[in-house]
Amino acid sequence: MTGDLGLDRAFHAKSIAIVGVSRAEGHSAPGYTGLMFLRLLQEAKFQGRLYPINPKADVIRGLKAYPSLTALSEVPDYVIVTVPAALVPQVLQDCISAGAVDVHICTAGFGETGEEEGKRLESVIRDIALRGGLRVVGPNALGYHVPSDRMQMYSQVVLAQGPVAFLSQSGGHCQTYVRQGPSQGIGFSKAISYGNALLMDSTDFLEYLATDPETQIVGMYIEDVKNGRRFKQLVTQVNPEKPIIIWKGGLTPSGARAAATHTGSLAGDRQVWEAFFKQTGVIKVDSIDEMADVTMTLLRLKPSPGGRVAVWGGGGGNSVAAGDVCAQEGLQVPPLSNKTITALREFMTIVNQSVVNPLDGGSVFEDLLTLKRALDIVAADPAIDIILLHLGVGYAKWFSAEHVAGFKKCVSGFARDNPTGKPAVVAVRDEGKAGEAEEFVRELREAAITTYSSLERACRALSRFAQYHRFRAEMGASAQGAGRPEPTYRE
Amino acid sequence: MTGDLGLDRAFHAKSIAIVGVSRAEGHSAPGYTGLMFLRLLQEAKFQGRLYPINPKADVIRGLKAYPSLTALSEVPDYVIVTVPAALVPQVLQDCISAGAVDVHICTAGFGETGEEEGKRLESVIRDIALRGGLRVVGPNALGYHVPSDRMQMYSQVVLAQGPVAFLSQSGGHCQTYVRQGPSQGIGFSKAISYGNALLMDSTDFLEYLATDPETQIVGMYIEDVKNGRRFKQLVTQVNPEKPIIIWKGGLTPSGARAAATHTGSLAGDRQVWEAFFKQTGVIKVDSIDEMADVTMTLLRLKPSPGGRVAVWGGGGGNSVAAGDVCAQEGLQVPPLSNKTITALREFMTIVNQSVVNPLDGGSVFEDLLTLKRALDIVAADPAIDIILLHLGVGYAKWFSAEHVAGFKKCVSGFARDNPTGKPAVVAVRDEGKAGEAEEFVRELREAAITTYSSLERACRALSRFAQYHRFRAEMGASAQGAGRPEPTYRE
Question: Cα torsion for B417, B418, B423, B428, to the nearest 10°?
Answer without folding.
Answer: -90
